[in-house]
Amino acid sequence: MQKLYVHPLPVRIWHWTNAFGFIFMIVTGLQIRYVGLINLMSFKTAVVAHNMIGFVLIANFFIWFLFYLFSDKIKVYHPELSPLKHFQASFRQLKYYGYGIFRGDPNPHHVSAYEKFNAMQSMTYQVIMLMLVPIQFFTGLLLWDVQRFSAAIELFGGVRIVDTIHVLIFIFFAGFIFVHPYLGSLGHTRMAHFKAMVTGYEEVEDDAKP
Ligand code: HEM
Fold first, then answer.
1. Is the pLDDT of residue 137 over 90?
2. Would the pLDDT of 202 be above 80?
3. What is the CB neighbour count within 10 angstroms for residue 91?
4. In whole angstroms, what is the distance from residue 118 CA to residue 86 CA?
5. Which protein residues touch ligand 1 with a CB less than 6 Å away?
6. pLDDT confidence band for 48 (50 / 70 / 90)
């Protein structure tokens, strides 16, 4: 096995702050939504904590965004421009996760410094980081002060629409927080990808390209 440096420090700082922050947002979000049904903390504490961590996560997002924007590591997010190749690679990966992995087949994707994501990861992470996360932060910001942002809220169809979008994306993340770590546990050992997200180094076969 050789070690490849795939997760630079800013990405790791962003990732773990974001991961714990999202868990916190989901718990306080549930408390706000189901006040009376869930009693983990007072409604007021949940609202104050949800707002505070929300602002921390918005600032934290820019660590990820600016790092990739100003680094050649952005290549890991370059999309495959041939739709056919992209869908073939995604299907191969899906077949591996749904079937091949249970027969002991090798992972069809081989990690290298600029290809650390398989086709499914690359597409999912782009949708999450460039669409869902920004929309979630933006709708959250509008709901944080509905008086101040009343004009913008009206522009998007009113507070019920903005709130519904916020809750639908919340439901997505509440599921993602289970599926994503599960997929993260499918490295050559259970902990391999988690360790890599802590140390920065992924262990790959000796003959893998750097
Ligand atoms: C308990 C929570 C989480 C755990 C254990 C976890 C674990 C991991 C691991 C092991 C990786 C390494 C690469 C991979 O296997 O995909 C990773 C990457 C990533 N995760 Fe998470 N994650 C968590 C929460 C989140 C959340 C809440 C988000 C987004 C809202 C997220 C977004 C990402 C992204 C975008 C990457 C790729 C980062 C990059 O290199 O640019 N993760 N995660």
1. yes
2. yes
3. 13
4. 10
5. 7, 11, 15, 18-19, 22, 121, 125, 128-129, 133, 177, 180-181, 184, 193-194, 197
6. very high
Atom of ligand 1 nearest to the CA of 193: 10
> If you take atom 1 of ligand 1, which residue's CA is the nearest one?
19
CB distance 93 to 108 below 8 Å: yes
What number does CATH give the domain 2-79+88-204?
A: 1.20.950.20
85: pLDDT strictly greater than 90: yes
* Spatial distance between the Cα atoms of 187 and 203, rounded to a whole number of angstroms: 9
Q: According to the model, what pLDDT value does residue 87 have?
A: 94
Q: Answer with the residue of higher pLDDT: 79 or 98.
A: 98
Mutate to test the pocket of ligand 1, among 56, 71, 180, 195 (most ligand atoms within 8 A of CB): 180
> What per-residue confidence (pLDDT) applies to 207?
67
CA atoms within 13 A on the CB side of 4: 20
Average pLDDT over residues 6-32: 98
Which residues have a Cβ under 8 Å from the Cβ of 107 and sit 6 or more positions away? 96, 101, 118, 186
138 vs 53: CA distance, rounded Å: 14
